[in-house]
Amino acid sequence: MVDQDGLPVAGATVSLLATGAATSTSEQGIYVIHNVPLGSQTVVVKLIGYRDAQKTIQIVSGQNQLDFDLVLEADQLEEVVVIGYGVTKRKQVTGSISSVTPEDFNKGVVSSPDQLLAGKVAGLVVNRAGGDPTAGATMQLRGPSSLTASSAPLYVIDGIVGANIELVAPDDIVSMDVMKDASSTAIYGSRAANGVIFVTTRRGKAGAPVINYSGYAATEMISNKVNVLSAAEHKAFVEEHGLTVAPNETGYETDWQKAITRTGISHNHNVSLGGGTEHTRYNASLNYFNNQGIVKRNGIEKIVARVGIDQNAFDDRLKLSFNIGNSIITSQHIDYGIFNGAARYVPTSPIMSDAPEYAQYGGYFQVVGRTGYMNPVAMLNQRDESRSNNTLLGNFKGDLKIADGLIWSNILSYQRRHWDKKYYMHRTDFDSFALGRGYAERTSLKHIDKILESYLNYSHTFSNVHNLEAMAGYSYQRTKNDDGIWASAVGFMSDDLIDNNLNLGTLPDGYNPFSGYPQIKESLLISVYGRVGYNYDDKYLLSASLRRDGSSKFGKNNRWATFPSVSAAWRLSREGFMQDQQLFSELKLRVGYGVSGNQNIDPYRSIIMFGPRDGQFFYNGRWINAYGVNQNENPNLKWESTAMFNVGLDFELWRGRLGGSIEYYDKETKDLLYEYNVPSPPYQFDRLLANGASMNNKGVEIVLNAHIINKGNFRYSTTLNFARNVNKVGSLSSNIENIGVTERYEGGIGLEGWTGQTASIVLPGQPIGTFYVAKYIGYDEDAKRTIYQKPSGELVTQDQISAPDDYQIMGYALPKFTYAWNNTLKYKNWDLNVFLRGMYGNQIFNATRADLSRLQQANVTNIVKEAVEEGIFETPLIASSRFLEDGSFLRLDNATLGYKFPMTQSRYIKQARIYLTTQNLFTITKYTGVDPELNLGGLSPGIDNRSYYPKTRSFILGCNLTF
Question: What are the record keywords, sorted (predicted)?
Answer without folding.
Answer: Cell outer membrane, Membrane, Receptor, TonB box, Transmembrane, Transmembrane beta strand, Transport
